[in-house]
Amino acid sequence: MTSIFKSRNIVIGLILLAILFPFITQNEYFLHVMTLAFIWMIAVYGLNLLAGYTGYLSLAHAGFFAIGAYAFGLLTVKAGLGFWSAFIIAPMITTAVGFLIGLIALRTKEHFFAIYTLCVGYIIYLLVDKWEGLTGGVRGLIGIPAPSNIGPVNLSTPLAQYYFVFAILLLVILVIYRLIHSLTGRTFIAIRNSEDLALSLGISTTKNKLLSFVLSTFFAGIAGTLYACFIRFIGPDIGNINITFDLLTYMIVGGIGTLSGPIVGTLLIVWLSQNLQFLQDYRMLIFGPLLTLMVIFSPGGISGLFSQWYAKRNLKKSAKFTKAEEQV
């Protein structure tokens, strides 16, 4: 019997709920929050591909998110490029930067890799914050264009933007799903489980780690581009290390190395944050212990917890059924 709590089934259920969400609520603020949550999910999927499936924790993810956002903002506001041209080029710029950084970063391993990427992320933040002639510094960039129409389809309304971002999220989930179930995805998992064993089997770990890192930055660039055209104003804070820790929280709470984890964790934390805005100054006092308890008692996150519970339930049922047959 197929478990209803398998990642694929959870994802399908949440996708159906997302499609129906605008019909359930007519509140534009809720649509705004959900659209923003979709953007964070795309970024978390990129982080999860590298950390969850390949076993390398990048703490520069917010930096690449910021590169995507600023690349789009600069191409449209200062270079005068059209929306769709900038929309395609911005993630490519992020990917190119990610490739160059990955060539150096992946010479390190484990906590050294995390420390190196932490430094890279901070350098990116400083460049965005201090290079006023290019980025505007603390003033940021304003006047970023909203999504242009696609033929007769008008993307200027909150509902249209909701489905536009949602469609891109679905595409990202499909790509991730096909990737992790391919030979390349199994190679990533082999590296995560034991890099030395993967090397002994003839797997080019350097090449595959670089591929995972570059794909991770590409998804971060897409998320940053969507954020820029959705919010239409960006400042250096989007490259702050706090954003990386938020994305890590979404991933770990939902379930690191699972297909449904980025969706479950992001939805839970984003909506919990919205309902606890009066405790915004104490959010780390709330989420810190929650994250610690999750790591200790449920390393697989909420998705893993439900999957384990349902597997144990089926195992008990199977044992009872076998015992009843033996008695007969």
CATH topology: ABC transporter involved in vitamin B12 uptake, BtuC
Largest sheet: 2 strands, antiparallel
Q: Radius of gyration, rounded?
A: 21 Å
Structural class: mainly alpha
CATH domain class name? Mainly Alpha
The count of domains is 1
> Strand order within the widest sheet?
1-2
| Mean pLDDT over the residues | 86
What is the string of helix and strand elements?
A: HHHHHHEHHHHEHHHH
**Residues in helix, %:** over 70%
Catalogue the unreliable spans: none
Gap between N and C termini, in Å?
24 Å
Tell me which CATH architecture applies here. Answer: Orthogonal Bundle
Organism: Salinibacillus aidingensis
Subcellular location: Cell membrane
Main location: membrane
Protein name: Branched-chain amino acid ABC transporter permease
